[in-house]
Each structure stands twice: as C-alpha cells, then as structure tokens.
Amino acid sequence: MSRPSRSFRISRTFRFVLCAGLVAGFFSNAAGDVLTRPCPAETRADSVLRLLTLDEKIALLHGHSMFTSGGVPRLGIPELSMADGPTGVREELERDSWEPLNWTTDSSTYFPAGPALAATWNRDLAVRYGEALGEEARARGKDILLGPSVNIIRTPLSGRNFEFLTEDPYLNAEIAAGYIRGLQSRDVAACIKHYAVNNQEAMRNRIDVRMSERALREIYLPVYRAAVEKAGVLAVMAAYNRFRGAYCSENEYLLNTLLKDTWGFRGVVISDWGGTHSTTPAALNGLDIEMGSRGPYDRYYFAGPLRDSVLTGSVPERVIDEKARRVLFVMFSLKTAESANRHRGSLATEEQFKTACDVAAEAVVLLKNTGNFLPLDARKIRSLAVFGENATHRHAREGFGAGVKTRREITPLEGLERKLRGRAEIRFAQGYAEKYNLVETGRRWRMRIPDSRPDSLLIQEAVEIARTSDAAVIFGGANRTIESEAYDRPDMRLPFGQEALIRAVAAVNPNTVVVLIAGAPYDLAGIDSCVNALVWGWFNGSESGTAMADVLFGDVNPSGKLPFTIPVRLEDSPAHALGAYPGEDFTVEYKEDLLVGYRWFDTKRIDPLYAFGHGLSYSAFTYDTPWTDRGTYGAGDTVRVFCSVRNVSRFEGAEAVQLYMRHRDAPVPRPVQELKGFEKVFLRPWEEKEVCIRVPVRDLAFFDDREMEWAVPAGVYELLIGASSRDIRGKTLIHVE
Ligand code: BGC
Q: Can you give the pTM of this predicted structure?
C-alpha cells in the first residue's frame, strides 16, 4: 500500500479533529441547546449562519480545490468534498489539476453505466446501486457524489448517452429516485445532473436550447422534479448549455422559479465545472456554489467578485445568507458534524461487486434469439470461437471525463474462460482492430474518429477459426473513446469494420452470437438479418464478463429491456428526421417537441429496429387481460391496474411488465402512448402471479401551457399492458371525472 500524500494526511487529521472535537464543541457552545436536542437540519443551519462573517459565508460558495468547496476553519466547518460519479467514485486527483494522485487506496467498484441500470427496470436494484455507491463514497471521505446523470437520450449520437439513463421521462424518474434514495441513505448527497437539457455534447458550452413549455415539463424536467419531491435530492448540477437564452447556471426560470420556488428544492445548486459565466446574474438567479477546473480560486465569480457585489449593493446580503444556509443545511443533513453517527462506508467489498454483478446480469438485453438459439449448452460445446477487441477491452477508465479506477473489471473473455474452464476450448482472435483517425477540433485536443475500414487479415483469421468451432461469439460495439463526454459521435455506424467481420463469421458458422458492448443506439440493420442471436451488453461494470458469461450459458435468464429505441436508420429518429440537431448559430430548436424516442416512432408509425422496452427472455410469458379496481376515477385517485402474468417455460425468469397510457380524444395533441408504470415480476417455472401497477391519476396529466398548470381532462384513457412499447398484450379503459 502506498503512503497517502502529505496533503491527504493533513486533511484527514483536520477532518478528524473537526468531526470528533472541534465541530461538536463548536456547535454546542455556539448554538446552545439547539444542537444538543435533535432538531432539523434547517434549524441547525440557521444557528450557525448567524455566526459567520460575510467572507466566511462566501468561502462556502465556491471551489477551493478541483473537488472541494470552501469551509470555515475558524469554526471547524469542513470543506464539502465531491467526486464524480455517476458510475463509481472517481480516483483521487491533485487538489489543483486533473492529474491523478496514483494512490493504491482509491480503487472503487465500477458499476454498470446509466442505461444499463435503467435496462434492469428494477427499482430495488437502483436503490442497491445507490447504497453501494454511497458506501464507497463515504469510505473515500466524500460528501457529494456527482450523479446520477439523467439527461434525456434525445439523439442516438449524444456522446454522453452511455451515462444517461433513458429516452423516457417516467423510467428516468423512477430509476433516478431509487439511485438517489440509496445513495443519500449513506449520508452522501446525490448531485443530479445536468440541469437541464444538456442533451448533446456538440457545442455544449454555448448552445442555446429552445423548446415548448410542454416538452420541457413533460419530457425533460420530470426526473428533476421527482428527484426533489420524491427523493429529497440534496444537490443539483447546473448544465453547461443555455436554455432560452440564459446559461443554465444563471437561469432564473430553471433555478429559482421551477427548482426552488415551485418544487421546493432545499439543497444546493452547483455549477458544472467551469460552467459559471457571471457573478451578479448567477447569484441572483439561483446558483449556490461555483465549481471549476483549477484556480486561482479567489478569482472565481463567487469569490472576490461576489464579495464586491455585496459591498456595492448589486447582490443583497440576504442572497448570500440564503446560499450559505443551503450549504449548511446540506452539511447537517449529511451529519457532517456528527462523525460518530455518520456512515463510515466500505470500499470495493465483495458485497459491492455482488451489487455490480446483479445489476449487470439484469441489465443484459436479449434483442434477438431466433429458434431459441441461446442459451448455449456448455455440455455440447467443445470449441467456442470468441472474436472482437471488446472481448478483452476494459472500459472503466477511458474517454474524456469521469472514469472509474477499479481493481476489478472482468472482461467477457475472462468471464467465458472461467465458465468453460476444463470443459471446452476457447479460441480467441482479435477480429477487428481499434484504429482511429485524428480530427482537429480547434481546441487543445484532437478528436479520435473510429476507422470503419475492415481489416481483411483479421477477418480471414476469424473465419478460419469460426469454420471449425461449435459456436462463435463476436464482441463488438463501441468503447469509451467513441462514446465520451465533450463530443458526439459523427454517425451511428458500427466502428472498425465490425459489420464485415460479423457477416463473414456468420456466413461460415450459423451458430454465431453477436454481443454489443455500447451505451447508445448503433446501426444494426446490416447485421440483424445475418445472425440468430443478438445481445446488448452495455458498459456493464466490474463484473460485466461474469454477467455476460452467465447469460450466454443460461445461468442467468436475461430480463433487461431497452431504455431507448434503436432506429433502423439515424434519419428515422426525431431530431434527425426534422433537421433539429445539432443546431445552427449556437441555437437548437427541439422541433420534435413531445415526440422524443418511442413517442415519435409510435405516433408517426415508423418501425424501429428494436423498440423501447424490448427485451427477450429464455422464458416465454403470457399475459391475461388486464383489469382495474374501478371504472371511474377522480383527479386525486390512484388507479390500480392488475394483470396476471405466467411463465410458460421450465426456466426461472423475470419480466418487466409495462403500462402505457393513451388519452382518447385528448383536447391537445399527445403522443399515442406514454409509459406510466411498470413492475418487474420474478417467476418460477410455470408460475403465475398477479401484477399490480399503481398509477396516480395526476400522472396521466399533460402540461397545459396556457394555464401553466398540469391538467387531467375528464374523459376516457386506455391503459395498455405490454412486454414492450411495440408488444402490447392487452388493454383496459378507465374514465376520469
Ligand atoms: C462534467 C460533469 C462532471 C464535472 C467534474 C464536467 O465536465 O460535465 O458531469 O461532474 O466535469 O468532473
């Protein structure tokens, strides 16, 4: 084990003194019995606020290192320590640069990336994921974890799709709320990001996003509202981009009007790193903490200049008080001053790897399985050909932005080797080469665009091996250089000539499975028809290889469902069909309005290649006709929708039963169907269970942009129950009065 650096030792000691003695002593002396009696974090925050000077309050409001905001040493108030997220606690960096400290004590678990978690459609797993992350963040001494990352997947090309969750606002909110609850139960604040509408990386630092009020409220904001109202999220990160003209970090409407005044958010708004553009507008319009990349920290907008704005009267001191109160509120909510009661956490334990493995296993999506080709039978396979760089590529720590330094990332090849050890021969060949062309970006770095030319020698080698093997598995897809923060993909093509490899191998071995390791839609139309089995594997965390081998050989029955639509062609998807990406003159108009993802495909009757919510199992499930507990409901009621689902197979399996709503004769245009509920049901062989999905009538509302309020007009609503958005198995009607 290496020795922690000196600065770490000092800050550890400092923290210990603060937590064990100074803070407790300070708090009880300074604030009297308020702090010796159990009392709300707000009351405590108020008591401490009264003791702070203007400079001390301002110190709380800006970065003092890359990942800490300031504390008040005089009173033993510690810095708030933050770490990226969203899929694992980032390694320790130098205080003042992006350089890693190269400790040996900061390796964390690498958890499956955002869409993988969403693909489980399992709220309990989202909570476990959050809890495990929280354990690790605490063990690493963090107060705030910079996640979840929840921007809606609007275009297949957005570089950060791999860390977002989904294209659907309901699934987004349900999974994010679980993640946040789990994380915060470990005394770590979640920082939901990026608020708001940071749906593309292209021009993200300047782009001005425009859309209707309805699209904003119905598609892009529900996740944040749920995070505040249902999960009590303690921090929100303001996005880099602009919205209706104003930067998100100084956007009065987003920050003050909606987040704080309408939803009642009590925590802190933190800027994205370097995403603050002013002092007075940002201060008045709702930003609380300015963070950035490197110092000098006393020159930040929210440092000296903020002090000057108060002294000259352009920012009233009560605005500073309000921000400092929020920071203190977060600290008290996290038990920062109660070291004895605060979660201590644990790092990269077997329990955390187990959580990563369970999520990974439930995340895998079986897209296609013609003739029940999968699972592979380990007793029958003597030789298994394995191809593709993604069989051996580790994805935890790559690309621009936050990666996870981890001691364990089981690759698919390793997973298969463990599974088949002593039972079958594995014949691995590279199949394709990860080659890139460098493209100037006009900035300090050059973009690496994957070369799509096939490598004929590698293909030939693979074909020879495949010809004489019992089955072949090709691991294709992307990596985190291709899908990355800071830039979008130029197209949806499978990289590195993978299509040619897949066709050639499938032509000589009919027992070919393709596994795609990726976090966003790719063009699969060219390979879909030439293989019997297609599996989506995601950037699936520390145990991705274990989970994949378990799925391929039937030890895990797949139950993942796509959290986004895979279009046949890029031009079929809404933003591209309408020429509404990436925008012109640094402005993008979301012309598709409400019709994002499957809402577009279904309303416009365009067939996707694989639909939102699609995912097969080794089991088959039958659904009975759904019914509801009543026929007529009032606005304050909750509809209970029942449906019996039966596993008609000899495998234990799980099914995410989905509920879509269709508003008949709606007074305003609405998508033909919208997800309003789901329940994942676990069934033994031949078992039948009655699934109950609860839908509060208020969730059927649309946003009435004339009255500026949510409305559920009286009328008939169809409730559709299905195995995917395109596999509806039954429906029932309700009347709303
Ligand atoms: C990203 C954030 C991240 C921050 C700190 C920014 O570039 O947009 O998601 O939390 O950097 O690493």
A: 0.95
